[in-house]
Task: structure prediction
Amino acid sequence: MQNMLTVIANALKGGAKVNGAQTVSEGSRVVVSSRSFADFTPQANFDIKRCDLHRLDEGPSVQTVLTREDGLKYYRTMQTMRRMELKADQLYKQKIIRGFCHLYDGQEACAVGIEAGIKPTDHLITAYRAHGYTYTRGVSVKEIMAELTGRRGGVAKGKGGSMHMYAKNFYGGNGIVGAQVPLGAGVALACQYQGKNEVCVTLYGDGAANQGQIFESFNMAALWKLPCIFICENNKYGMGTSVERASASTDYYKRGDFIPGLRVDGMDVLGVREATKFAADYCRSGKGPILMELQTYRYHGHSMSDPGVSYRTREEIQEVRSKSDPITTLKDRMINSNMASLEEIKDIDADIRKEVEEAAQFATTDPEPPLEDLCNHIFYNDTPLEVRGTNPWTRLKSIS
Result:
């Protein structure tokens, strides 16, 4: 204790932070307004909602353990995603981001929970609401924001925009509704063929759930026992159409028919994590594919061109925010279990705001890609690109 006081006294003249504790100097007296990390509970047990099951004798556990380290990591990741999307909303309204832009705020527990339940060597492919998954797969906020604004420093060099971002073991961001599902089945086939005991997480929305190519992919994956986790992110609305108006059956976790399924609370990061671990173990055991339905909710409209309140009420959105917000739920769990302090959470929030603001500054000042880069990465090699001998494209080459 004496050593701790010595450290505080030496380091905090004028006010500073030690072990996350905010301190202020009052003359010769040092006042510590928070606790040291040693005062926090290192881990705690939590109850999670039981999953609905299809063709399964048992499902994920209804209890889980959360460590303080993981909890803070999940909170930081989800809050970063939230702030990033809110900044994207602002830049879009300023006409700095143009074109299509589908925001992910409200659904953060899905991306973070899935990532916590698989390995970095596993694979993931999703639809066009992809900013969150791009971040959880390792791309920086700076690169994502620059891609949204079409700048050279973007993750796809400014040529992919909102819907087309990629990273190692992450295959986008796909703009055609449902088209990523057969691609994901193909990635799972590669996992099986290469024998690396990896799985592919293949995501689609409730709006894509009635696509024929999805059921064709289910059929092949079941026949070949592919290690594929098919995940329907059911955020209740496909564009402006509610699930009840779009689907004769809204039990999306049963739609694989012959494929086992489970329906998960997609607003609880711990529930999604445990369900994903269960699904990944199922696939790795050689049993074939499994289907998950994550019941979640988007706060924004379908895209930035959709105000989001012509087919649902503001009261409905506010009710979800007040009762089921994934970030607030995790924060309350940690504070109520003495795993974190409110001051510590506020410090994290401040760091995130700074990171997002710096990323936005870069995204608005970085140069756009030059015309010479237009045809790069079209071909595997550097074959010259000639388009019917027309101007000025004949001077451009594809550099990979």
